[in-house]
Amino acid sequence: MGYFLETLFGGLMSGMLYALVGLGFVLIFKASGVFNFAQGAMVLVAALSMARFSSWLPQWLGFESLILANILAFIISAILMVIVAILIERFVLRHLVNQEATTLLMATLGISYFLDGAGQTMFGSSVYTIDVGMPKDPAFILNDMFEGGVLINLEDLTAAGIAALLVAVLAIFFQYTNTGRALRAVADDHQAAQSIGIPLNRIWIIVWAVAGVVALVAGIIWGSKFGVQFTLSTAALRALPVVILGGLTSVPGAIIGGLIIGVGEKLSEAYLGPYLGGGIEIWFAYVLALVFLLFRPQGLFGEKIIDRV
User: Is the backbone of residue 73 left (phi > 0), alpha (psi -120 to 50) or beta?
Assistant: First the structure.
């Protein structure tokens, strides 16, 4: 039972990280109706910015406080992601208003490659580290219930708590604020939203900026765990099954989908891997996503689209 709980907790922690990356996809899709393939590149650029500025600032300003360096680096990185959002809207999205979803999709692919190259140009291509003080040592819990206790990773637990808080804030933002309702209106129909006075350009800047800050938080967590390198941009591919499972238009769906996939990966690898030769964790999420695409393409919480003719 103790081993099962360890595996379950590990899956829940991984699922929260998947959900955090998946949120970026959901945010962009809710505002523009297009799948944002640039989300992985945004995570990479944000993480690179955080890693490099937290290293550069103490040298430039002559102080040694790691906490101050991280705070300033986070602020600068968040501002950078807002600037990226403004530039994307000004030079790309503004010229593609009311275009087909395929056109917008190809635009996000172009943005992705551009951000990958720009990140390497500005920050270099080495492997960098992010140290934000997250606990690295594991801990044992439930010692009285199970012999030897249950081992949990405190870094994963802290990351999951941060991700859960961010998800809750975003859910409240979309449901109970005027801007959140405007975002949902824009996602439903660009022309109708514009006809009632919703400024499409400003809405797109807001949603890309929010997605950039989400990418920054995800990049910090992933960078703290695994280091910041250019393969980090492929981490977004791990979140594709999450949004397919939860639904492309649902913020709660992103977190539920992330948890299901995180737990499913860990449990299947732990209990089925020895019989099937291992490697289940690599393909489990994609097979599950394929099943949903076949039988419930809108996901668990997505909106079913019905075309009337």
Answer: alpha
| pLDDT tens digits, 49-101 | 999 999 999 999 888 888 899 999 999 999 999 999 888 878 887 787 667 77
DSSP string of the chain? -HHHHHHHHHHHHHHHHHHHHHHHHHHHHHHHSS--TTHHHHHHHHHHHHHHHHHHHHHHHT---HHHHHHHHHHHHHHHHHHHHHHHHHHTGGGGTT--HHHHHHHHHHHHHHHHHHHHHHH-SS-B--------SEEEE-TTTSTT-EEEEHHHHHHHHHHHHHHHHHHHHHHHSHHHHHHHHHHH-HHHHHHTT--HHHHHHHHHHHHHHHHHHHHHHHHHHH-B-GGGGGGGGGGHHHHHHH-TT-HHHHHHHHHHHHHHHHHHHHHTHHHHTS-HHHHHHHHHHHHHHHH-TTTTTSPPP----
Question: What pLDDT, on the 0 to 100 scale, is given for residue 147?
Answer: 67
Give the list of residues 6+ apart from residue 29 with CB closer than 8 angstroms, or none: 35, 36, 187, 243, 248, 249
User: Nearest Cα to 243, choosing from 292, 189, 174?
Assistant: 292
Which residue type is seen at 290?
L
Phi, psi of 147 (to 5 degrees): -65, 125
What are the pLDDT digits (tens) for 123-139?
Answer: 988 888 888 887 777 77
What distance lies between CA 96 and its chain's CA centroid?
A: 25
* Chain mean position to CA 101: 21
Please tell me the pTM assigned to this model: 0.85
User: Phi first, then psi: what are they for 256, rounded to 5°?
Assistant: -65, -45
